[in-house]
Design a protein that fits this description.
Elements: H1 9-14, E1 22-25, E2 29-33, E3 41-47, H2 62-78, E4 86-89, E5 105-109
Length: 126
């Protein structure tokens, strides 16, 4: 049995207790549509195992991280943006605005994106 946290929103989605528009699922990851999309295509990719953030990944989780990255390519193909391009974003911690503490990647695409990703922010020089 894979560890899941009973009060975690994403763990409850994995268990089917909370509905979600699942795009892709295998034994290691679940990908579903974000309920507040920032682009025409906005999918969350999460591991089945509860891991709070990138900061909590350990050497034993290397395979999980790999499965999440490979799932991004598969999901991009399923939703039709593999060739046009997409962005994969992981928010980690309060300053990055991580709102659900179960590691997740935001696969965002279906539109032309700019760089830097947040226009209007001052450029930081070292």
């Amino acid at each position: 049995m894979i560890y899941q946290k009973p009060d975690c929103l994403f763990c409850r989605i994995i268990l089917g207790e909370i509905p979600a528009k699942i795009v892709y699922r295998n034994d290691h990851v679940v990908a579903f549509r974000d309920i507040t999309p920032v682009a025409p295509q906005h999918i969350l990719i999460i591991p089945v195992k509860h891991i709070s953030s990138l900061n909590d990944l350990g050497p034993a989780d290397e395979m999980i991280a790999g499965h999440m990255l490979l799932a991004a390519r598969i999901v991009a193909e399923i939703i039709g943006i593999r060739e046009s391009g997409y962005r994969l974003v992981f928010n980690t911690g309060a300053d990055a605005m991580q709102s659900v503490f179960h590691i997740h990647g935001h696969l965002i695409g279906g539109t032309q994106m700019g760089w830097p990703p947040f226009p209007g922010l001052p450029t930081v020089h070292a």
